[in-house]
Amino acid sequence: MGLSIGLDTAISGLRAMQLAIDTAAHNVANADTQGYSRQEVVFRAIPPVQDRNSAPNAPLRMLGMGVDSGRIRRLRDTLLDVQYRDAHRIHEQYHAEATALGQAEVILNEPSDQGLQQLMAGFFNTFRDLTSRPESIAARAAAVEQGATLAASFNRAGQMLVSQRSDLDASIEVKVTEINKLAGELAELNKQIRMASVSGVSANDLMDRRDVVLDELAGLAGVTVQNGADDTVDVYLGARALVSGTTVDALAAVPDPLNANLRQVVWASDSAASGITSGEIAGILKSRDVHVTGLLNALDELAQAIIAGVNAHHQNGTGLDGTTGLDFFTGTGALDVAVNQTLRDEPGKLGIADAIDEPGNANTARLIAGVQNELLLGGGTTTVEDFYRATVATLGVNSQQAMLQRDNQDLLARHIDTARQSVMGVSLDEEMTNLMKGQHAYQAVAKVISTVDEILDTLINRTA
Amino acid sequence: MRIPDRVITDSVKSNVNVNIARMMKIEQQISSGRRINAPSDDPAAAAAALRLRADISMSEQFTRNIDSAAARLGATDSALGSLTDLLQRARELTVQAGSAGISPAQLSAIGTELNQLLHHAVQVGNSSFGGQYLFSGTKTTTPAFLATGDVPATVTYQGNTSAILQDVGDNAQVQMNVTGDQGLLAAMNALIQIRDALNAGDRTTAIQSGLTALDGAMDAVLQQRGSLGARINRLESLGVRIEDERINLHGLKGSLEDVDMADTIVRLNSARNVYEAALGAAAQVIQKSLVQFLR
Q1: Which pLDDT belongs to residue B176?
Q2: For the segment A38-76, what is each residue's pLDDT rounded down to a tens digit?
Q3: Is the pLDDT of residue A4 over 80?
Q4: Which residue of B has its CA nearest to A415?
Q5: Which residues contact A98 (CB under 8 A, 6 or more apart)?
Q6: Which terminus of chain A, N or C, has less C-beta within 10 A?
Q7: Rounded mean pLDDT of chain B?
């Protein structure tokens, strides 16, 4: 063998150690980069060459030619990625629901002295007060104003729920834009990764970025991921591909005429339903269509029952001037319920007597107060207050459940992420060790080169 | 298992956040004084607390109704009390008119006084309380009795016979008026009858049938006062019972809604200790790295 082979072997080692030190530097630099997977140089011994001793008939032998450091791999457990995305999409869904339900709780503001419960009780009580002094215009005005306060509270709660619903609706547009942007980025990454893959280069950092995008897409819409050709991935929403290789089938948020023109998520190309069933968008849709709309409907039902119940008695009642047949409440639901303006202008017309020309008669007032205990709702099984309490309790249970699920899934996602990080995360201690190892190996290889150099010097310059 | 630096910092961050969130929740309970700040804090307790709020509000209303009914019944009773005194005096005068040796001048004086008592009785019958005529039935803005002239020939009842009912509890009502068509009108008519008989010099009729009518009217008034007294007593005991109940309701509501301060402050302290320990531990763990030991 020739001495120059020794030099070549040593140089392969120098290159390898240089690469190991560079990789450690890259790892340390990205220790805090989101989604970064630590990288490692894959060392492999260069296939040996056959060598024969100069002695006659000597056997062949295999001579090592140094180290090949062609490939840098990223350390990542893709099974954990799948598990993480699964936990993450459920967490995002409940997170959206818990946030919306928490807001709804603030809107209803129960239990408190300003909540609808207290105002309903106060309203019926002012009619009980009227029995003590039905001829008093001041007492009548107080009852009318209490009714107006109750109506205003219904209006306010209804309006706030409506605006919460339209806020949720608007956020769907934002989220769909976000999905399309991420899908576009993913297609671009697929393109770059394919180019790298075809030319045999490992695209570790691009793949890391792509995994971040996939995490985000899973959180938004619960997408599933399938591996495609040349290291690309395809992303599916249900059975339809959102991203297939480098092609994007974009989503759009369009008004749904069947759902009060609130937005629905469809495929932009053919307006087919997107079929999103999990992730943040599903959480927002459920909050909008089930939680907030359900609460609005309950308030409407409650307001309608009170309007009908009170009016039924009030129409039969007689005012101080003999007026009869008036409605106490006008309107058709929580949003537009109001006290009849005629009564606000002239509280004397309040129909609380059951006979004409009896200013001290408050028998109808007693009946109106009794609406509090009438079984007006749930098909004649529930009073207005019980109905409202059940509504509040249901809201509380839903909110509590969503928070519990959110926290549990958060814990699970964190746990999986810790497992994921334990494979892919950068440990500074480890990198420092690698750095030292690389440095020492580099020094050793350099020593080999200087030794070969000395041998050559001896051979060439001292032998004569 | 490898523990990369990021796992340590992430876990420190999330645990510290959990601790801060727990402290904030307790702090919110202490500063608001309330255990339930939203239905989701305890849905069952929140629903029960709402029910108690409704019950308390209803109970306070019944107390107000009882108070106003009792006040009105009290005013009615004192009016009927002065009527009783007045009728007593009328009875004495009538008996005096029947005694032998009474002079025409004295008789005329008795007649005049009876007429004054009649005016007085009408005045009592038209007593009002808080702007309501007490004896007019539900025609509370109309004076119960109309007597025209200095020597009214008749007294007309202008009210009706309707009862005024007040709700004073679940399915419990009390009638809080006495209508003037009963004892009062009879008493006034008796006074007129006696006065007119005496003025006409007819002492026998005055004493015989007049006195009977007067006694009948007095009995009726006394009976009404008895019934009033019974109603007032019933209201008083009802009021006491409702207030006792309300104290219980407040206690129940407090135990559901309000914070147990001592317990909560202990929990805050313990949460703060855990938080501080977590920060301390984090400081220890994050500081250490091989980097510090190299070279």
Answers
A1: 92
A2: 999 999 998 888 876 667 777 788 888 889 887 899 999
A3: no
A4: B11
A5: A399, A402, A403, A405, A406
A6: C
A7: 91
- Both A338 and A258 in one domain: the answer is yes
Residues B266 and B222 in one domain: no
Separation in Å, CA of B63 to nearest CA in chain A:
11
User: Distance, in angstroms, between B7 CA and closest chain A CA?
Assistant: 6
A121 and A240 within one domain = yes
Q: Which of A363, A421, A433 sits opposite B7 (nearest CB)?
A: A421
Interface contact B166-A131, CB threshold 8 A: yes
Which candidate from B36, B38, B131 shows the least CB-CB separation from A135?
A: B131
List of chain A residues whose C-beta atoms are within 8 Å of the C-beta of residue B134: none
What number is the ipTM of this complex? 0.86
Contact by Cβ (8 Å): A110, B37 = no
Q: Within 10 A of B45 (CB to CB), how many other CB atoms are there?
A: 18
Residue B32 backbone dihedrals phi, psi, to 5 degrees = -90, -15
DSSP string across A289-322: IIIIHHHHHHHHHHHHHHHHHHHHHHHH-B-TTS
In terms of CA atoms, which chain B residue is nearest residue A107? B38
What's the number of domains chain B is made of?
2
Asked if B44 and A393 come within 8 Å (Cβ–Cβ), the reply is: yes
pLDDT at A44: 92
Assign 3-class secondary structure to A321-363.
CCCECCCCEECCCCCCCEECHHHHHCHHHCCCECCCCCCCCCH
Residue B114, class by beta-carbon neighbours within 10 Å (0-12 exposed, 13-18 middle, 19+ buried)? Answer: buried
Pairing of strands A329-330, B172-175: unpaired
| Interface A:B, Cβ pairs < 8 A | 178
Cα separation, A257 vs A127, in Å, equals 44
- Identify whether the C-beta of residue A192 lies closer than 8 Å to the C-beta of residue A206: yes
A22 and A153 assigned to the same domain: no
Q: Read off the pLDDT of residues A248-298 as tens digits, 9 standing for 90 and up.
A: 999 999 999 999 899 999 999 999 999 899 999 999 999 999 999 999 999
Q: List pLDDT tens digits, range B163-208.
A: 999 999 888 899 999 999 978 999 999 999 999 988 888 888 778 8
Residues B218-240 have pLDDT tens digits of: 999 999 999 999 999 999 999 99
Structure token digits, residue A31: 């220790």
Write out the residue range of the structural domain in which residue A238 sits: 83-412
Domain membership of residue B35 (yes or no) is no
What residues make up the domain containing B186?
A: 49-252
Q: What's the pLDDT band for B73 if we cut at 50, 70, 90?
A: very high
Cα separation, A355 vs B181, whole angstroms = 19
Q: Would the CB atoms of B47 and A433 count as touching at under 8 Å?
A: no
Q: Indicate if B263 and B244 belong to the same structural domain.
A: no
